[in-house]
Write a structure and sequence with these properties.
6-stranded mixed beta sheet, Gyrase A, domain 2, 35% strand, 368 residues, single chain, Elongation Factor Tu (Ef-tu), domain 3, 6-stranded antiparallel beta barrel, 8 helices
Length: 368
Amino acid sequence: MSETPAKRTPLHDRHIAHGARMVSFAGWDMPVQYSGLIDEHMAVRKRAGLFDVSHMGEARVRGSQACEFLQYLTCNNVATLKIGRAHYTGLMTPSGCFHDDLLIYRLDENEFLLVLNAANVGKDLAWMHDHLHRFDAELTDESEAWALLALQGPEAVAILEPIAADRVADLGYYMFTRTLVAGVDTLVSRTGYTGEDGFEFYLPADGAGKVWDALIERGTGHGLVPAGLGARDTLRLEAKMALYGNDIDDTTTALEADLGWIVKFKKGDFIGREALVRQKAEGIRRRLIGFEMEGRAIARHGYDACVDGRKAGKVTSGTLAPYLDKRIGLAYLPLEFCDVGSTFEVDVRGRAQPARVVKTPFYQRNRS
């Protein structure tokens, strides 16, 4: 039986022209790096990087009970979202774990845009459809219609302003607007997955090339580089942004994942609320922590975290952080070992390597 060919984003030819190394990711042929992971990572921290993340899924929810529908499915408080704002939330299971994590944009009083992880689009839509019959709302998969670009870094505003029809510099964090970018109707959002300032652009798939080219041309004088999935991963880890499938999944609760801030118990009933209320009352037994390796070894996803020679948890993400020049990672540990300064070991290919719990996020940009 032949394998299903990997999907391609509207910018595939441009990635090849820029010398990208392409890899298969979540069923897509995606650029993992161009000039090199470290170069791209440092460009985003110091100047700017441009990512193609058109593999992400988009769905539209509309109807008189669209808000109530999303309130029931997710843990954050959709009712408090004003038009023109977005928030990060979890699509929850009855056990209070993550079916997925996602962004919700409020387009109008009864209309929302959902942004889903590429690997989860099918299961997310199926899960939502299972509950849709209880609400006066409709759910539409619009993934094929959208392209999604991310311009990230301290030079992002200077690069975008001259090619946007409206002023974007005053757009607040997690706010968005509709405007023309290089003549293409675009939803411009002050969001990102890097820990840097920047924007994400939701636009028609057939306009992606025009906007990409304009940003590359305008960004040349600002040190902009195209950046791939490799740098996106190291950047998000420095900023302690969770990755579904690594740091969170359907076995990790929002409280264990140190994401209690997105759980709004007072909003009323939602899937997983009962389990999370119970866990909060009883107390969590483990928590996702950040750590630094004390030697030169690098912790990787799946490595055992040990205390006194005994397995205590698992590393969920780990890397050499280019900007920090430190070997960092995330791991679930029993609560008694989660205090900042606590030490443990990571089993790196059969050798116990020392690690220390540290304050997170590892990196936080200067907002002055």
